[in-house]
Amino acid sequence: MVNLSSFSPIHFLFYSLVISLSSTIICGGIETDHEALLKIKSLITRDPYGALTSWNDSLRLCDWSHVYCGKRHRRVTIIDLSSQGLEGSLSPHVGNLSFLRTLSLGNNSFQGAIPQEVGRLSRLCRLYLYQNKFNEVIPTNISGCFNIEAIVLSNNELVGSIPKEISSLTKLSFLSLFHNKLTGGIPTILGNVTSLELFSVSDNELVGSIPKEFSSLTKLTFLSLFNNKLTGGIPPYLGNMTSLEVFSLKGNPLGGTCDNRHKTGN
Ligand SMILES: *[C@@H]1O[C@H](CO)[C@@H](O)[C@H](O)[C@H]1NC(C)=O
Ligand SMILES: *[C@@H]1O[C@H](CO)[C@@H](O)[C@H](O)[C@H]1NC(C)=O
Ligand SMILES: *[C@@H]1O[C@H](CO)[C@@H](O)[C@H](O)[C@H]1NC(C)=O
Ligand SMILES: *[C@@H]1O[C@H](CO)[C@@H](O)[C@H](O)[C@H]1NC(C)=O
Ligand SMILES: *[C@@H]1O[C@H](CO)[C@@H](O)[C@H](O)[C@H]1NC(C)=O
Ligand SMILES: *[C@@H]1O[C@H](CO)[C@@H](O)[C@H](O)[C@H]1NC(C)=O
């Protein structure tokens, strides 16, 4: 039994304040997620398998399909809409899903820009946007995703250069950008991303040479550079990179055929 007589008006005020504050914080968060998902849905123009049918108010947001929430805070942590035949563009509201850890939209037909707002997702670990029709630049603000481990943007139509801002992502281990229309050089500063294990930029229009700074990438196991316009010779230090298992340079002016060690698919 609660002894009501020990509940002074001050206590009562205090507890009502705590309760109303915490409920606005939680509600505010969920409402932002709710709004963001509906905005994302509103820019999807084709949904042949009804992947987003359940994204409506007859169900609670955490019960919507392809959406996963954290157990404790009930905020959206994963969106997995890969291979759903979706067409449309990606709403900048995605940047409001502040608890998002995985965004997986691979193998659909999203086009237009990857919004700069993605850079507001400071908890994001995995960004899978491969095999779509994104056709603008890689957002420089991606450097705001400082927890990111995998950026997979391969098989799109991205233009412009590889943003040097990526160099500040200290947890990044997978950077896959193959088969786009990227131009410019490979930023030497990427030699600072010592967490990198996979770097694939094959099938682009990159020029310049392989930065000697890559010799610092001691965890690199997969380095794929084929079908670009790289020049400047094969850096001698590559032979010293003991972690390297797959290395492909075919189809570059410098390369001839020098697939070392393993054949690569990509
Ligand atoms: C809302 O979602 C439920 C559950 O998936 C579905 O049965 C219903 O048809 C949806 N309503 C609309 C209007 O799409
Ligand atoms: C891509 O998505 C389509 C459905 O739209 C599916 O049939 C196909 O198997 C998927 N491909 C891959 C490689 O996952
Ligand atoms: C969400 O994002 C949009 C566009 O980035 C912004 O205009 C809006 O104010 C944001 N906040 C909320 C709470 O929806
Ligand atoms: C991009 O990042 C800059 C610097 O952090 C910030 O001022 C700007 O608002 C960001 N843009 C978007 C669209 O989030
Ligand atoms: C790259 O890393 C080195 C060693 O940690 C550091 O001294 C340097 O300032 C970094 N460069 C940039 C441009 O961040
Ligand atoms: C490769 O490693 C050996 C032994 O540590 C060293 O003497 C040599 O200078 C290195 N070569 C390059 C190109 O880094």
TrEMBL record:
Record EC number: 2.7.11.1
The membrane-topology field of this record reads:
Single-pass type I membrane protein
UniProt-listed Pfam families:
LRR_1, LRR_8, LRRNT_2
Q: Where in the cell is it found?
A: Membrane
Ranges for domain Leucine-rich repeat-containing N-terminal plant-type: 32-69
Which Gene Ontology terms of cellular component type are present?
membrane
Q: What class of enzyme is it?
A: transferase
Question: Residue span of the signal peptide, if any?
Answer: 1-29
Keywords annotated in UniProt: ATP-binding, Glycoprotein, Kinase, Leucine-rich repeat, Membrane, Nucleotide-binding, Receptor, Repeat, Serine/threonine-protein kinase, Signal, Transferase, Transmembrane, Transmembrane helix
Task: Extract the GO molecular function terms from the UniProt entry.
Answer: ATP binding; protein serine/threonine kinase activity
PANTHER family referenced in this protein's UniProt entry, alphabetically: LRR RECEPTOR-LIKE KINASE (PTHR48063), OS11G0565920 PROTEIN (PTHR48063:SF90)
Q: What is this protein called?
A: Non-specific serine/threonine protein kinase
